[in-house]
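hey m, so remember when u said the tokens were messed up on ur end? i reran from scratch. heres the input so u can diff it against urs
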Amino acid sequence: MVSHKSRYVRVAELALSLAEETFPLYAHPKSPHRYTLPQRIACVLMMFYLNLSYRDMEEWLYATDQVCAALGLQAVPDHTTLQRTYRRFRHSHIDALHHALLGRLRPQEEVIAGDSTGFRFQSRSAYYQTRRGVPYREWLKGAYAVGTASQLVLAQLAVRGPGIDAWLLPRLRRAARRYGRKEGGRRAWLFLLDAGFDGAPLEPGDLVPVVRRSGQRIAPARQVRQELVSAARLDGVMGQRWMSETVHSVIKRKFGDTIRSRQWRRQQREPLMRGLAYNLHRVRPVSAVSFRVTAY
């Protein structure tokens, strides 16, 4: 019989390895020391990866001896332990795990695609909302910058919607810059975005379609940008922007599109945790120190 390691075991091992690299062994010298901090963080990452609640994650761990062995757990953490672990999470902690994973893979992208997508604050279906005649008036937006070659989330933000995306562009570009290809120390990568980002301060290499406002004549500088976008469409480069839409679809289908937390501080972490879970899903360890990105 050919030995096969479960995908859940691989993800658990990778999550634990990243947490051990990023966080100390214990959160406090006088903590009970029943579980290490990396073990608890790995359990929370697995909870988002499986799209489970705290109680369901506890029961799932009871039923999976291989994952518990991969995490080095002598006992299964209580659901309240998992809840307290996520409550103490910060944006800086998620960013540290995200950069630790990308630091192992070292992607160098020639084309990066950016876009945002909405996450619902309630579990009611869109069909039910349509029948009631009450549209969604507020949601949480996750903005992601995706490498078109590796299909990894290189940068991510979470903001309250609805609203324009133009002000998100500088932050996404700054975070994704380190993973773009450089020539002679200068930027040599393209950033593809949709027309919703029109109006933001642009740099050479940012391709954003021009929106004609109030039927007025387009300014000469905007005409030049539109010609660059049209040329990129003819060359097939602009079509790679749809890679971001594919990533949005995978994140929502596999890890859910509903925000479960009740407090705003925890709510705005959930799109970031889903982006991290997506990257864990994309990576497959080849050996103890080697990793590669899997194809769909």
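this time it looks ok to me. The beta strands are 111-119, 139-147, 153-161, 182-183, 186-187, 190-192, 206-207, 283-285, 291-293. if urs says something different then somethings off w ur setup not the seq
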